[in-house]
Design brief:
The complex is a heterotrimer. By secondary structure, chain A is mostly helical. Chain A has helices at about 1-15, 20-35, 75-110, 110-125, 130-140, 145-155, 160-175, 175-185, 190-225, 235-245, 255-280, 285-294. In chain A, helix 2 crosses helix 3 and helix 3 packs across helix 7. In chain A, about 35% of the residues are buried. By secondary structure, chain B is of the alpha/beta class. Chain B has helices spanning about 55-60, 85-95, 110-120, 130-140, 145-150, 160-170, 190-205, 220-225, 240-245, 250-260, 300-305, and strands at about 5-20, 25-40, 45-50, 70-75, 80, 95-100, 180, 210-215, 225-230, 235-240, 310, 315. The longest helix of chain B has 18 residues, at about 190-205. The chains are: A mainly alpha, B alpha/beta, C alpha/beta. Chains in contact: A-B, A-C, B-C. The interface between B and C is large, with 50 and 50 residues.
Chain lengths: ~290, ~325, ~325
């Protein structure tokens, strides 16, 4: 326990020093607050039409303006953020967890199990995911909602981590410290927890963040084609409706800019966090800090 | 079944396949090897070979980390790949390894003391942390290290020699019968090697521990061993007492090895050597003796048939010359 | 400089800049005041253990002064005929590398391009130094050179990955000697090779030296190789020269405690006596010990050794030692 507290303290110190990481973290916190706290404070369902006067530019009363359909963009944004982030997290994590476990089994067991898992994963990697998603999306259009989108993304992206985790485990298994662990009496779980994780976690956290990027971005892509859950509020569907009603041509720039700028800032914050996290967790950098510190 | 040997490696072969799902090439890293360590007394046996000779693969099989393709390895009469649970734990306590690079033998993010405590507690060598500390202190003194110097330090804070001694201490905690030392001094400066080699001699004398010393360096192997096995491309080509084999070598490979060592004495310079200008390919796949391409005594028979193990002059030699 | 000296090393101080958080702009004292000279047609060995500075010394001698290696002070001057050129001269690399001096590294990987056949490597070397080459004519020269070294002609049309480690190292030697340089620097050229190949490669080097009468500077930690191959030997410790004498003198008539412990701790086949090891104590090159750098491990060290640094003095003809207690050894 004492060690864990020390780790957290060291982490805090690091965040304070690395300014870009700090900024990224603050931005993400703001978005998370908007998405998961503020959104529940909305006085009405912002998706409903005509809950606000139409096509008003940003003002004190309506901070981000309103749409042609009579929706308050501010509350709509909070709901959209919430749903996009849910899709992002679930889509990223489901696939990552499935893929990592399979990759671990393949790398550790070897033999036929490894070959079967690797070959199936390779087949899936070769399939263009975007095409598949568009296909499936158009087939089950009516049943698309936030949950199904998240699950869809998660299930279709399990194959990438398999290769990466498998190769990491393979190389870690051959390291001599694994043998020392075995001869010190440690069992597999302990070896993984104490000695593999420091190498695997940096990769997993980077992968998780990249996949969040991808999931949110793909949802936007789908939405623009009209293949997402159009009746739900997501950053993508906001853009869809804005483009459908030709907001830009008609000068309703606030309708287009709101989701766009939010997306840009969201991606920026995720990027800053991923860079900062990598610099902190990367085993080589950690080693440097340890050696330099003494 | 009572046996005279504590460790017996019987006709062990290991074949690796490299390649893809369907098409792959095979090569035998270890080919029909026999070695044994006696039960009633301690002995230091050297396994000498160049890289690619299969000595590390053989070491890993003896430790039970890799499974042989054919043949058995017996500890105290029992096949080590057939034992489980408590018996397996006893085996691990009795046969412990030391690896070449001490820095790679531990995780750089872990304090070295962790490995010492872990070994004590996991193998039931001590019942409480206090007892464990005592055992660790005693063992560290055996290798000439001060316990307070070790505590709370990470691997990078030690020199190579010190870290290697800590690794030896870890292996000694369970008071094993056999130490499997895979190139334990290769990464240590020549002037500091004697410290560690002298520890091995002490362990044999005072604690009756046998050591399987794996190396490519004949001089250090002469210094500590009683017996020596020379490995070439997976075969043991000569095996016998150290004085016999190194002072009166029979196998051509042993002879060439001895002639090639750079003796640190300017009065004992190399004799003019045999120049080998073949491209040294495919020695693993030869049907006959694997040394045939480079042997100065090679005959036609050598290319076609593998020589058997022949006993001559109180040692084993694998060469058609002595048939 | 007398006539037979072709390289003079003057008071070299070469440090590595470090920038770890604690020691920002600290220096690792790799070489602290090294002076000696290399003579024509001699085989000089540089011995020492990890951290002694021998690899740095070879890099400085060859002019490879890439950051973080900085030459704080001192110079290395080459003398070819009447011309003198320093390594600090901007034209040094272009004028001298491969032609007047060449370098054999520990691993052939840095020199051999995996996408080029061996013969193309030779052409590259030629192209770098002559503007126009007649490929056909030069190919004859290359074949002659290869055969002269006892290598099979088939290697010329092979790619590096098709050759064994020993063969690659021999090719690197062939490349390094092709333009008949006057000085060849070899940095642990045989450490990665097995013992039998090592002997062959070193004998090849000796053969070349015998015929072309060039100078070889051989750096290795393996004292046995020095005994077999070199004529003169420099032993280094923690960035300083501790003893410098003809090789036979170093082995049979040493006068420095470090050299004594080094030689006496070597195991020899046929000799069953118990050898003693040196006391292990890590040397810090960032904050080297005061006075003589060897004093923490020296059984003869006294107060003077701890305060003052001994200089390299000539105790016998051509035999230099840097120790206050040399007479006791």
């Amino acid at each position: 326990m004492k060690d864990n507290i020390k780790y957290i303290k060291a982490f805090m110190k690091y965040i304070w020093r690395d300014k870009s990481f700090f900024i990224g973290l603050i931005m993400l916190t703001v978005f998370m607050m908007l998405a998961f706290v503020v959104s529940f404070l909305s006085p009405y369902d912002p998706r409903r039409w005509n809950t606000a006067p139409r096509e008003r530019p940003p003002s004190w009363e309506y901070p981000l303006g309103t749409t042609t359909l009579g929706q308050n963009l501010f509350w709509l944004l909070t709901w959209a953020l919430r749903n996009s982030l849910i899709i992002g997290f679930s889509g990223s994590l489901i696939g990552l967890i499935i893929g990592s476990i399979l990759g671990f089994i393949a790398g550790h067991k070897g033999g036929i199990i490894d070959r079967i898992i690797s070959n199936i994963a390779d087949i899936f990697i070769a399939i263009p995911i975007l095409m598949l998603i568009i296909l499936i999306g158009s087939l089950i259009k009516t049943q698309l909602n936030i949950t199904t989108l998240g699950v869809l993304f998660g299930v279709l992206t399990w194959s990438m981590p398999v290769r990466n985790v498998r190769s990491m485990i393979l190389s870690l298994r051959e390291q001599e410290f694994t043998y020392t662990d075995i001869f010190s009496g440690l069992n597999l779980l302990e070896i993984v927890y104490r000695h593999y994780l420091p190498f695997v976690i940096p990769w997993i956290s980077m992968a998780a963040i990249n996949r969040i990027f991808w999931a949110i971005g793909t949802e936007v892509t789908l939405a623009i084609f009209g293949l997402s859950a159009i009746d739900e509020a997501t950053l993508g569907t906001m853009l869809y409706w804005a483009l459908k009603y030709q907001a830009l041509l008609r000068g309703l720039y606030w309708w287009v800019l709101t989701p766009t700028i939010t997306l840009v800032l969201l991606f920026l914050s995720l990027y800053l966090i991923s860079v900062g996290l990598n610099t902190y967790l990367n085993p080589k950098a950690r080693l440097q800090r340890m050696i330099g510190g003494k | 079944m009572l046996s005279n040997y504590i460790l017996e490696v019987k006709n062990v072969t290991k074949i690796f396949r490299i390649g893809g799902l369907i098409f792959a090439t095979r090569f035998s890293a270890v080919d029909n090897v026999n070695i044994s360590l006696p039960k009633d007394y301690a002995e230091i046996v050297s396994l000498v070979g160049e890289s690619g000779s299969g000595k590390t693969t053989l070491a890993r099989m003896i430790l039970g980390i890799i499974k042989p393709t054919s043949g058995n390895i017996l500890y105290n009469g029992k096949d080590i790949f057939k034992i489980k649970g408590k018996e397996l734990k006893e085996f691990r306590k009795s046969v412990q390894p030391i690896f070449q690079n001490p820095y790679e033998s531990v995780s750089p993010f872990e304090k070295v003391y962790f490995y010492l405590i872990s070994t004590c507690l996991k193998y039931g060598l001590a019942n409480s942390k206090n007892d464990a500390d005592n055992l660790i202190n005693e063992t560290l003194n055996m290798v000439g290290l001060n316990p307070s110097y070790i505590k709370d330090k990470y691997p990078h804070e030690f020199s190579g020699g010190e870290l290697q001694r800590i690794m030896i201490a870890r292996a000694l905690l369970s008071r094993p019968r056999i130490l499997i030392a895979d190139e334990p001094v290769s990464m240590i400066d020549a002037s500091l090697r004697m410290e560690i080699l002298n520890i091995f001699l002490e362990l044999k004398k005072r604690f009756d521990m046998s050591v399987l010393y794996i190396t490519h360096d004949l001089a250090t192997s002469y210094y500590i061993s009683d017996k020596i096995a020379i490995m070439h491309r997976g075969n043991i080509v000569e095996y016998g007492s150290i004085d016999r084999v190194l002072n009166d070598p029979l196998h051509p490979y042993t002879k060439i090895l001895l002639e090639s060592i750079p003796v640190p004495d300017p009065d004992k310079k190399w004799k003019e050597g045999i120049s080998i200008s073949t491209l040294e390919i495919k020695e693993y796949e030869l049907l006959g003796c694997k040394f045939a391409f480079r042997c100065p005594f090679v005959k036609k028979n050598c290319y076609e048939k593998k020589p058997p193990d022949i006993i001559k002059d109180s040692r084993m030699v694998k060469c058609w010359l002595y048939y | 400089m007398n006539n037979s000296e072709i390289i003079t090393v003057n008071n070299i101080y070469a440090y590595y800049k470090t920038s770890t958080e604690k020691y920002s702009h600290g220096y690792i004292h790799a070489l602290d005041g090294i002076s000696f000279s290399i003579h024509n047609s001699e085989i000089l060995g540089i011995a020492g253990e990890s951290g002694c500075g021998k690899s740095t010394l070879i890099k400085v001698l060859y002019g490879l002064l890439d950051p973080p290696l900085t030459l704080i002070n001192g110079d290395v001057i080459y003398k070819f005929g009447k011309e003198e050129i320093s390594i600090k001269d901007k034209k040094f690399k272009r004028k001298c590398h491969w032609k007047l001096c060449s370098y054999i590294p520990q691993s052939s990987m840095g020199i051999l391009n995996p996408t080029m056949r061996i013969k193309d490597h030779f052409f590259e070397v030629l192209k770098a130094h002559h503007k126009y080459i007649d490929k056909k004519e030069q190919y004859e020269n290359i074949i002659k050179h290869i055969q002269h070294l006892g290598l099979p002609i088939e290697v010329l049309t092979s790619f590096p990955h098709q050759l064994s480690g020993g063969m690659k190292q021999r090719i690197v030697i062939a490349l390094a000697t092709f333009l008949k340089p006057k000085v060849i620097f070899a940095d642990e050229p045989t450490t990665a090779l097995d013992v039998i190949t090592q002997k062959e490669v070193l004998q090849l080097l000796l053969k070349i030296q015998k015929e072309s009468k060039n100078t070889i500077v051989l750096v290795t930690h393996d004292i046995g190789i020095h005994a077999q191959v070199t004529q003169k030997l420099i032993v280094m410790y923690a960035g300083k020269i501790v003893e410098y004498a003809p090789t036979r003198e170093i082995f049979k008539n040493f006068h420095h405690p470090y050299v004594k412990m080094l030689i006496e701790s070597l195991p020899i086949i046929g000799d069953k006596s118990i050898k003693q090891s040196m006391k292990s104590a890590p040397i810090s090159l960032i904050n080297p010990p005061s006075g003589c750098r060897f004093h923490p491990r020296c059984p003869l060290a006294d107060d003077k050794c701890k305060k003052e640094e001994p200089n390299l003095i000539e105790i016998l003809e051509d035999h230099y030692v840097s120790c206050f207690k040399w007479e006791l050894i």
